[in-house]
Amino acid sequence: MLCMTLAVVLLLSSLAFASAEEEKVFNLVTSSNSIATKLDAVWVNRGDLFKTLVFRSLFLPDTTLTNLSPDLAASYTVSDDNLTVEVTLKDNIFWHDMEPITAEDVKWSIETALKAASLNAIYSTAFSNLEGAAEWTSGEAEEISGITIDGNVVTFQLARTSSTFLPILGQFAILPKHCLEDVDPLELHNDDFWQMPVGSGMYKVAEFNPGNYVVYERFEGYEGEAPQFDRMVLSAVGDYTIAASLGDVDYMISSNPDQINSLNEMEHMTQFPVPINYYRYGSRDVRRAGAGEPGGLHP
């Protein structure tokens, strides 16, 4: 496993701030394919802006993915042997439907993720370090014995030490048990829930027009600092550069050199290089290599 850095550029329009006090609307763009029938589930790729605005994790990792600050968690402790992690949730935190967020949501999310058909390998690898994880995924146990709850405290008992368990837990989105507990984990990523998902972030999904746009509204039940904009509108466009030239884009991310150069020529667009850390896994076919043929390394 390699931790790598991808260089991308964030482009921000000065028009967003010129009109922020009057309209308090922030305009973003995407392709029509990305919002064709539903919004993307959050347990494969956590990096999209929508997934960080609408959903939350226990922690917020920094750009190095090592230092953690609280998000849904108020605090955490780690035992001297690094095998026990105790996480205390914040009081008075809510889902967008104003149901309380509980330790049961945390336990259910991790257990369900390990049986889900669509899950990033960093999560399955990290959570497999929990005591009882193998018995749970094989169907031998009714729960993961290494996750226990007491009020708003979640205790994780690891079978072996893992230096990445906490940073990866900080990237894992907690989902609402009361909305999804009856959904087959193998079909969770395709469920109708993702047409109007219930999250816990500073913005909630207010309107979804498949293939055209999504409207996010500020969530008044968010306990943190209120965001600047009342609404964010994500619109599907065919050409990002044309949309930006027309003043229809306030923010976008790109790693395309030609696109970045075109946007830099627009006086109202400003670029900010952003390093993004990510994990890449490799696999080698040792059977082929053992037969005298070179094994392939596959990202």
UniProtKB/TrEMBL annotation:
InterPro entries to which the protein is assigned, alphabetical: SBP_5, SBP_5_dom
Presence of the UniProt keyword DNA repair in the record: no
CDD domains, alphabetized: PBP2_NikA_DppA_OppA_like (cd00995)
Keyword annotations from UniProtKB, A to Z: Signal, Transport
GO MF term (any one): peptide transmembrane transporter activity
Gene Ontology annotations of biological process type: peptide transport
Keyword Signal: yes
Signal sequence range: 1-18
Domain Solute-binding protein family: start-end pairs: 68-281
Coiled-coil ranges per UniProt: none
Domain of life: Bacteria
Pfam families linked: SBP_bac_5
Family: Belongs to the bacterial solute-binding protein 5 family.
PANTHER family: OLIGOPEPTIDE-BINDING PROTEIN APPA (PTHR30290:SF9), PERIPLASMIC BINDING COMPONENT OF ABC TRANSPORTER (PTHR30290)
Protein name (record): ABC transporter substrate-binding protein
